[in-house]
Amino acid sequence: MDSVLKYLSSNQSRFVDELCTYVRFRSVSAQPQHRPDMQSCADWLVKHCRDIGLQAEARPTDGNPIVIAKTPRKKSSAKRRHFMVYGHYDVQPPEPFDLWKTPPFQPTIRGRSLFARGASDNKGQNLAHLKAVEAYLKTGTALPCDLTFVIEGEEEVGSKSLAGFLQKHRAELACDAVVISDTGIPSQKNPALTYALRGIAAFEIILRGPSRDLHSGIFGGSVENPAMALSRLLAKVHDAKGRIVIPHFYDGVVPLTKYERKQMGRVPFNRNAYRKFLGVPELHGERGFTPDEQRSARPTFEINGLTSGYQGDGSKTIVPSWARAKITSRLVPGQQPAKVIKHIQAFLKKNCPDTVEMEIKSGHGAEAYMVSPTSDDAQAALRALKKAFGHEPVLLREGGSIPIVNQFKKILGADTLLLGLALPDDNAHSPNEKFDLDIFAHGQKLSALLWQELAG
Ligand code: BES
Ligand code: ZN
Question: What pLDDT, on the 0 to 100 scale, is given for residue 73?
């Protein structure tokens, strides 16, 4: 292992250059104009994987290509363990551009941070694993297990193609467990194993009123304003205590155990610092739960985007013809996306005034994920975390979603080890996303040590 670790420490500046190349690709999966960028990013990844000694190819799908890269397989008879390392090369839209201190696809180093869209979510994190394998392959150190990298380009839009791909190639991708670095850690001093993620149910609601935008002076007051109707409707979803009033919404929700509450308590939390960090005058959430519980173990109903009427400069006096909201509910274990959407839909229908037409378009969905933090593999991961970071790891439940982990379990029967490298202030999905370069190095070390612990 010495030569592997030495290789890692003596190549850090090149690795950072490579990460800069990786984040220059505008691989925004949500925006159709970036389709060619998705392909170029996948092609670059394949070449990079080949250069470090992996057998790699970009597999086409109906959506964006999936990069598959394998460590060279030995013909030995001993049954070696096989792990999948999953990551994604697609990124969230960078908008609003004017809030970026330096352009999102022009990587910039300030202090020990690399700023760029995708630096943390997820390019920096999956590159850390590739660099660890490079260290094994380039120093001629035998890997104790077989690895298959699966790096997809649709995670940020619900992983539509990968689910089918897993079905089709389940024999090839069969593995003992999946390893993912696409979650967070509270700080460098609190490396973490995440054992639960929230699920998600996405949909759009459109309210249609007059057949065209109307003069608000001539007609306003005599006709429903769809923006007002939508505001009234959405305002009914929560009560004064921050609880969602939609009938059956909380059906099946599994409460936190004492053990989980204790684990959560191990992570330092300062309410005022959290408030300041978020830039809000006061925190807000479902009463009876701590902010940590609210954002990781409780379901939510969020407006992600709200559009209606005139958005340009100056004023325009109209009654808009329509109003639209993009909504997602984060789900916790025990909830099913299809059922939740059904209950939400029924509620919205019931409460929608008959002065507008309502359309609901349902989007992607995924159940929450939960895995035992005490399995042998989880214990192996905790040992690797401790060695790599030099600190006792914590166990986390996190609020974000990685929809495909459910399919890894259902289709491949494989549990996922979530070993995140993102810091809370990495600005994932926000302007000025960054990745901490010390964590990048720690992540590579973690990956290198992990294979020893898991195979041992
Ligand atoms: N890396 C995140 C998921 C994440 C972040 C999990 C932090 C836990 C903590 C991932 O890239 C992501 O953003 N996923 C989307 C999935 C959605 C579009 C279906 C999400 O959670 O919004
Ligand atoms: Zn993301």
Answer: 93
**Is 68 in contact with 38 (CB distance < 8 Å)?**
no
Last residue of some domain: 319, 346, 366?
366
Is ligand 1 within 6 A of the CB of residue 318?
Answer: no
Asked whether the whole model's pTM tops 0.85, one would answer yes
Same domain, 20 and 93: yes
In this structure, which ligand is nearest to the CA of 117?
2
The answer on 145 and 70 residing in a single domain is yes
Selection from 402, 406, 443, 441 nearest residue 421 by Cα: 443
For residue 308, give both structure tokens. 């209606």
Q: Is the CB of 403 under 6 A from ligand 1?
A: yes
What is the average pLDDT across 341-364?
A: 97
Q: What is the pLDDT of residue 274?
A: 96
Same domain membership, residue 188 and residue 70? yes
CATH number, residue 422: 3.40.630.10
Q: What is the pLDDT of residue 261?
A: 87
Atom of ligand 1 nearest to the CA of 156: 18
For 265-295, the pLDDT digits (tens) are 888 899 999 999 999 999 999 999 999 999 9
Q: Is the pLDDT of residue 146 over 80?
A: yes
How many domains is the chain partitioned into structurally? 2
Name the residue among 430, 406, 67, 394 with its Cα closest to residue 278. Answer: 430
The verdict on residue 213 lying in a domain is yes
Which helix (H) or strand (E) element contains residue 114? strand 113-115
- 6 and 142, same domain (yes or no): yes
Q: Which of 401, 406, 425 best tests ligand 1's pocket when mutated (most atoms within 8 Å of CB)?
A: 401
Give yes or no: residues 29 and 92 share one domain: yes
What pLDDT score was predicted for residue 74? 82
> What is the mean pLDDT of the segment spanning 192-200?
97
CA dist., res. 219 & res. 49, Å (int): 63
pLDDT, tens digit (0-9, with 9 covering 90-100), for 391-446: 999 999 999 999 999 999 999 999 999 999 999 999 999 999 999 999 999 999 99
So what's the pLDDT on residue 77?
Answer: 53
Q: Dmax of the chain from CA atoms?
A: 83
What residues make up the domain containing 32?
Answer: 2-197+368-455
Task: Tell whether 327 is covered by a domain.
Answer: yes
List of E strands, 249-376: 302-308, 318-319, 322-331, 357-366, 369-370
Domain end (from 343, 366, 389): 366
444 lines ligand 1 (CB under 6 A): no
